[in-house]
């Protein structure tokens, strides 16, 4: 529910959207009718219009604008056709045709790219005073789009292979370390040595098959080699299982289990890499059919249908502006009921306003463990466990629509609650501007010393960039501060070093929580979101409805759904107070500072 204009009246989001749509529709119709009448009285010189068409198909994930929703894929391809790169290449192709110069401003003004409803066809329309120029520009846009798709598909395939190879390299190093530790223990057991020899032979055969796979482009040969690779991998798994069954010592069993998990992950990565190479070699592209322009049609000036279309567009703009102005009358979120349907994400927990419990601390999980606020964060941890089930050491980004909305306090309390539940937790202070998380958890450090950016640049090792948060000996909570300032954070988080650091964190911790800048305020938050496994949004009570819909639109644009959201600063009603009292039995006799549950093996 929402509160409008600071009054006590409440309206739903759907109700506000319905009023907005009615206003837009009214202006749409009135604007079209007015300009249609004006257009009937004005003469016009007319232009020549050329039409080209293309039918697109999403054949593989390596195409530009790939998505799991067909209608969005077509919309993405329309944006590619309207992009600066296509426009620049179009200018070059027109110049090569010897028809003079055409500017980018002219292309933006005269080019229309239209999707056909219920179809994968896209129509490219260009108008010009000269019919030959209209045909040439329309066909040049089509040709530039084809070139861009081919180049981008190859680049995407290579980038995917490079990222997979980097992760495989890290896993290989860890496997070598484990193999050395295991062999030291196995040297006295002849049966284990024989199984190890057989496993090594199978691994060598896998490497030979892999080289054969990479050296051929024949699809049938690749399929045959792929079957052989799968058989060898099954043998390796059998040898590892047999070795594991012979090991009774707890130390060896732990090492073998870890080795098996890493080897399984490596096999999955190799299969993914092979599939990327096969797709890149056999990908027919996103263009199923192209129909270039062959002639131009003369269209009359500003009258008739053109006047009607212009009026409708003007009415749409005016209606949208008026609707936005009305919507900006501070409609605000006061209840959590409809947020989930808007963000298409579940509610992880509802956290009450600390002040309503009389809390002066920003860390109720540690300083006031019996409070309803602390219990809400513990509840959020159990919800996070559920939504990330199946992810290995999930890397979770925590953000909010704007500043001052409690994401840093949420990150600190979530991390502490997870650590007190027995998990090994790493918090990363990636909000470079404020560094409030570092100031909360390591106030004496003040953000100084090596941290995230130093680890990314290779100046320090991963473990040297983390600090243990001083809570208790049983709590395994660590913090990675910002580190040295960087010039362009978005480039840093898109680098291979950032992906390597994420892998290193996953090998060391059970949960990694990133305190990121507000998604609607800072550009590099989108880069961090692409690096993460999933994300959580912090939505405070009183948030503007417009900010909530903007957050949804931004997430849809970058195609990264949320794992869930936390509704903070909620009202503390009687149900909350009763829940707080019911926790007395759990914490009876506990001192302030909370208690921990050990999950260590």
Report a brief summary of the structure:
The longest helix is centred in the first third of the chain and has 56 residues, at 131-186. It contains 20 helices and 16 strands.
Please describe the topology of this protein.
Blueprint: E1 2-3, E2 10-11, H1 13-40, E3 47-56, H2 70-81, H3 84-96, H4 104-110, E4 111-115, E5 121-128, H5 131-186, H6 190-214, H7 219-246, H8 250-282, E6 287-291, E7 296-299, H9 304-327, E8 332-333, H10 339-343, E9 347-352, H11 364-367, H12 372-387, E10 395-399, H13 407-420, E11 425-429, H14 436-441, H15 452-457, E12 467-468, E13 477-480, H16 489-493, H17 496-508, E14 511-515, H18 524-531, E15 534-540, H19 545-557, E16 564-570, H20 574-582
Parallel strand pairs: 9-16, 10-14, 10-15, 11-13, 11-14, 15-16
Antiparallel strand pairs: 1-2, 1-8, 3-5, 3-6, 3-7, 4-5, 12-13
Helix pairs in contact: 1-9, 3-5, 5-8, 5-17, 6-7, 7-8, 12-13
Your description of this structure?
The structure is a single chain. The chain has 601 residues and is an alpha/beta fold. Among the domains are: 1-44 and 302-330, no CATH class; 161-282, no CATH class; 350-359 and 372-582, 3-Layer(aba) Sandwich (Rossmann fold), CATH 3.40.50. Helix content is 54%, strand content 13%. The chain contains 20 helices and 16 strands. The strands form 3 sheets. Strands 9-16-15-10-14-11-13-12 form an 8-stranded mixed beta sheet, sandwiched between helices. Strands 3, 4, 5, 6 and 7 form a 5-stranded antiparallel beta sheet that branches. Helix 1 (13-40) packs antiparallel against helix 9 (304-327). The protein is flat and about 85 Å long. The two termini are 46 Å apart. The model is unreliable at 1-14, 40-44, 60-68, 584-592 and 594-601 (pLDDT under 50).
């Amino acid at each position: 529910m929402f509160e409008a204009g600071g009054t006590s009246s409440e309206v739903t989001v759907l109700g506000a959207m319905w009023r907005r749509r009615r206003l837009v529709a009214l202006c749409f119709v009135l604007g079209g009718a007015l300009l249609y009448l004006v257009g009937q009285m004005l003469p016009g010189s007319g232009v020549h219009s050329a039409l080209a068409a293309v039918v697109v198909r999403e054949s593989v994930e390596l195409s530009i604008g790939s998505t799991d929703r067909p209608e969005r894929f077509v919309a993405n391809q329309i944006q590619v056709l309207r992009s600066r790169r296509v426009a620049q290449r179009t200018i070059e192709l027109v110049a090569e045709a010897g028809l003079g110069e055409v500017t980018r401003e002219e292309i933006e003004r005269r080019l229309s790219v239209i999707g056909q409803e219920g179809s994968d066809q896209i129509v490219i329309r260009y108008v010009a005073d000269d019919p030959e120029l209209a045909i040439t520009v329309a066909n040049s846009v089509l040709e530039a789009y084809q070139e861009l798709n081919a180049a981008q598909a190859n680049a995407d395939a290579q980038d995917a292979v490079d990222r997979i190879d980097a992760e495989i390299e890290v896993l290989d190093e860890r496997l070598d370390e484990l193999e050395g530790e295991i062999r030291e223990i196995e040297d006295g057991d002849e049966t284990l040595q024989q199984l190890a020899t057989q496993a090594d032979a199978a691994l060598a055969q896998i490497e030979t098959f892999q080289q054969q796979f990479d050296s051929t482009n024949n699809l049938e040969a690749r399929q045959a080699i792929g079957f052989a690779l799968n058989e060898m991998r099954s043998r390796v798994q059998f040898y590892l299982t047999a070795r594991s069954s012979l090991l009774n010592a707890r130390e060896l069993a732990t090492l073998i289990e870890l080795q098996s998990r890493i080897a399984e992950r490596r096999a999955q990565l190799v299969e993914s890499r092979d599939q990327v190479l096969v797709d890149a070699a056999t990908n027919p592209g996103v263009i199923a059919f192209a129909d270039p322009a062959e002639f131009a049609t003369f269209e009359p000036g500003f009258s008739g249908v053109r006047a009607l279309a212009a009026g409708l567009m003007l009415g749409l703009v005016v209606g949208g502006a008026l609707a936005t102005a009305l919507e900006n009358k501070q409609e605000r979120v006061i209840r959590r009921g409809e947020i989930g349907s808007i963000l298409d994400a579940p509610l992880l927990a509802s956290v009450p306003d600390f002040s309503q419990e009389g809390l002066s601390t920003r860390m109720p999980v540690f300083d006031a463990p019996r409070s309803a606020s602390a219990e809400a964060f513990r509840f959020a941890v159990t919800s996070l466990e559920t939504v990330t089930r199946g992810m290995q050491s999930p890397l979770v980004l925590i953000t909010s629509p704007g500043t001052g909305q409690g994401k840093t306090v949420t990150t600190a309390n979530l991390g502490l609650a997870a650590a007190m539940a027995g998990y090994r937790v790493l918090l990363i202070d990636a909000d470079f501007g404020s560094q409030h998380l570092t100031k909360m958890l390591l106030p004496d450090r003040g953000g100084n010393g090596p941290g995230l950016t130093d680890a990314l640049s290779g100046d320090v090792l991963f473990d040297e960039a983390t600090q243990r948060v001083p809570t208790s000996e049983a709590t395994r909570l660590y913090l990675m501060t910002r580190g040295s300032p960087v010039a362009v954070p978005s480039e840093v988080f898109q680098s291979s070093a950032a992906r390597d650091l994420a892998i290193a964190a996953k090998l060391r911790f059970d949960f990694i929580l990133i305190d990121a800048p507000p998604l609607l305020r800072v550009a590099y938050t989108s880069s961090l979101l692409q690096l993460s496994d999933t994300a959580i949004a912090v939505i405070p009570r009183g948030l503007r409805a417009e900010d909530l819909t903007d957050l949804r639109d931004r997430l849809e644009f970058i195609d990264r759904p949320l794992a869930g959201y936390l509704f903070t600063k909620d009202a503390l009603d009687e149900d909350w107070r009763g829940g707080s009292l019911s926790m007395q039995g759990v914490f009876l006799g506990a001192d302030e500072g909370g208690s921990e549950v050990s999950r260590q093996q």
